[in-house]
Amino acid sequence: MFTASNELLDALRQQLGPDQILTDADSLTHYGRDWTRFAEPAPSAIVLPKTIEQVQHIVAVARRFEAPLVPSGGRTGLSGGAVAAAGELVVAMDRMNTLSDVNLTERTLCCGPGVITEQIQQRAGDAGLHYPVDFASSGSSQIGGNIATNAGGIQVIRYGMTREWIAGLKVVTGTGELLDLNRGLVKNNTGLDLRHLMIGSEGILGLIVEATVRLCTPPRNPQVIVLGLPDMESIMQVLAAFQSEIDLLAYEFFSELALQKVVQQQGLQRPFNEVTPYYALLEFEHLGEDTEAQILMIVERCMESGWVADAVMSQSVAQARALWRLREDISETLSHWTPYKNDISTTVAKVPGFLAAVEEIVDRHYPDLEVVWYGHIGDGNLHLNILKPESVPMDEFQARCKTVSAEIFTEIAAQGGSISAEHGVGLLKRDFLRYSRSEAEIGLMRSIKAAFDPDNIMNPGKVFPAQPSAE
């Protein structure tokens, strides 16, 4: 457990104002956690830099005092990557929130790491362009955190992950050196692209201090359809039927229990009266009457095949948003039950067998608990949520879920999948990293971290499993 000394805090104050260093209990709790609740926040202090130079100063002080640093963005993470539970200094990027105008020639904009994702989307929209990485927390997540976790979201099936949309990065490494990576170039074939090492690195290599973001043409007249499905196998049959004829923007799924929770907690309406075990939400570009006729024909064929029991299609922007809330409000709704989350994936072709195998494990181990499925199934990503009963202590619940997760992850390894599709590894999944990465890969990743962060001050204790003591 690290404790920040008065000498350390005085050294920070040489370039930081009194309002940029917080040590009160409320601030320590607020900035020391993310959306997970499996570890109590216990940082020594919160620092809120405003400039790149101040970030470099913080790193220099941290090196001198061997102080661990935890980067903090919008604190919407779901793997404990931004949790400070061992006396660390939290480097909160909230005040590094400059946002440039859109460069229409390059179709880019430049921003600080503390800019809210939704602000980038709005700035792009005002210029007639589109930033396509979108998810339920876009109104509170920050772009620096999105980049550090390579965030995905609801339109990965069309646009890919955050990685595809970062044209350049500025990063302060664990030595305090400022790296200016790629500088917005489209073509740059000059050796290793260190930008891509930083994307998804969860703050263990350095602190992101500026990003150049790519933009694109917005989708034309998006429309939404929600389908009721009788079983998990039908989810993939329907996906194949649509993808053979339509270029989808999104393909999401959720279970009946997920729908029940959202309707009850958020006061929303069910999409239709018929109750089915699973639901699929599809978004596509409505390009005219021919598109709607084509969609209805596909739905009719799916119904004839027994894959779809009922359907509703949006007829207005407001209705499309209401249907999206049935899916996007799930994560916030489930937070009331402090769920144990599994964010897992495999290749789309393997999803049917993967689903069946994981569902068998879950049904066998959790007959007495509520289990909620949802996810971005169009790209092979499933979110499995085990809801904690009020009567069960947190440590007992977490220990039980970890034991079952090991069995689930064994199946994932057999399928060549990932134990963390988009939420990162952080604290919660570091002990399971070997199910997705070989010992050789983990060794190389540790070596890369040592090169960028020789003093191990950048988000220590995250991503990698703990090594045995030398004693």
TrEMBL record:
Cofactor(s) the protein needs: FAD
Gene Ontology molecular functions: FAD binding; oxidoreductase activity
Superkingdom classification of source: Bacteria
Top-level taxonomy: Bacteria, Pseudomonadati, Pseudomonadota, Gammaproteobacteria, Cellvibrionales
GO terms of biological process kind: respiratory electron transport chain
Name used for this protein in its record: FAD-binding PCMH-type domain-containing protein
One Pfam family, short name: FAD-oxidase_C
Keyword terms: FAD, Flavoprotein, Oxidoreductase
Entries under InterPro entries matching the protein: FAD-bd_oxidored_4_C, FAD-bd_PCMH, FAD-bd_PCMH-like_sf, FAD-bd_PCMH_sub2, FAD-linked_Oxase-like_C, FAD-oxidored/transferase_4, Oxid_FAD_bind_N, Vanillyl_alc_oxidase_C-sub2
UniProt key word Ion transport: no
Domain FAD-binding PCMH-type: 39-218
The family this protein is said to belong to: Belongs to the FAD-binding oxidoreductase/transferase type 4 family.
